[in-house]
Amino acid sequence: VGCGSGLLVGWFGGAASGFADAIPDMTFEPANITITTDAPQTAAVGQPITVTLTVSDINSTQRTIRDIDWSGTIVDNMDFGTINPVPQEQNPDGDYREIVFETPLGADQSQDFTFILTPRQAGTYNAAITVYVDDYNSERTEILIDVRDSDADADADADQSEAVPSEDAIDADVSEDVEP
After folding, report:
1. How far apart are CA 59 and CA 45, in angstroms?
2. Helix ranges (DSSP H) in the chain
């Protein structure tokens, strides 16, 4: 079970330093990983989007990606669909989602994690995404996605297509003055 199901819910960006005293066998150190994200900046309601996290080891040591936790308004306003690699379990809890992987990450290697999300309503949504490795050391990244109403996008496309006259219409408006 990952970090979000117990005492460590509040561990974001090193905030868990006080837990080291409460749990003497657990040490908190830098995770020695990097996270890069590939996510759209805009999306439409009801249209699936892909968010890819690439987790890379920078410590020349084999690691285990324990879980990836999402928090923020994306969790409340988007449906989580297909996730690759397939997680061992998911624990949605209100505005927080813990996704347990237990995926090995080789020394100096990278692993992609792909999430298909579908926005339910228009708005601007954020997520703090925390990747936990080994003894729950972590790194965090954030994303922001602006979701438009899909009807507004269709209306904008229709307005744009109406504004472009056809070639026949252009020819009909052209008149030639012929001198006698």
Report:
1. 40
2. 19-22, 73-77, 150-163, 167-173
